[in-house]
Amino acid sequence: MNVPTYEQVDELPRHLERVVPPEFIDENGHVNIGRYLELGGTALWLRCQRELGMPDDYIAQRGLSTFTAEHHLTYHSEVLEGHDVSVRVRLVGRSGKVLHAVCLIVDETHRRLACTMETTIVHMDMTSRRPVDFPDEVAALIDAALEADDLSWPAPVCGAMGVRRR
User: Fold this and answer.
1) How confident is the model over 136-157, as a mean pLDDT?
2) Helical H runs in the chain?
């Protein structure tokens, strides 16, 4: 896995920012694994809502949503209570029904990458509870975001995840 520098990651917009609260800390004195999933998952959800055509009322209005299919977490440095963190979501690829992304969780206090959370999400029909294609307008927004996220440095992916192309 290629680990990007802080300067490279900083090319991406911040989709989530916060200060690490005491309740995020585990018995080892650093951020608990579940909180990394929460940070990355929340940032990805926010990007889908704000930029990819799946707003707050997507489920209620269209009967559609996304389900997480797979995660891969890699830790690069510790994050402690009181640190400022941000999450940047970089889209990597898609098929008709699946989106592949990597959430870069950054320790802003020390200007370093703390964790990468690679994820695949599946677009779902909430009535049938089965995968369905992204609507055309959502697919177009995802494709535009994929193009914008095609940076000069490789996405830090594990190589074991992805999407099957039709």
Assistant:
1) 96
2) 6-9, 33-51, 58-62, 136-148
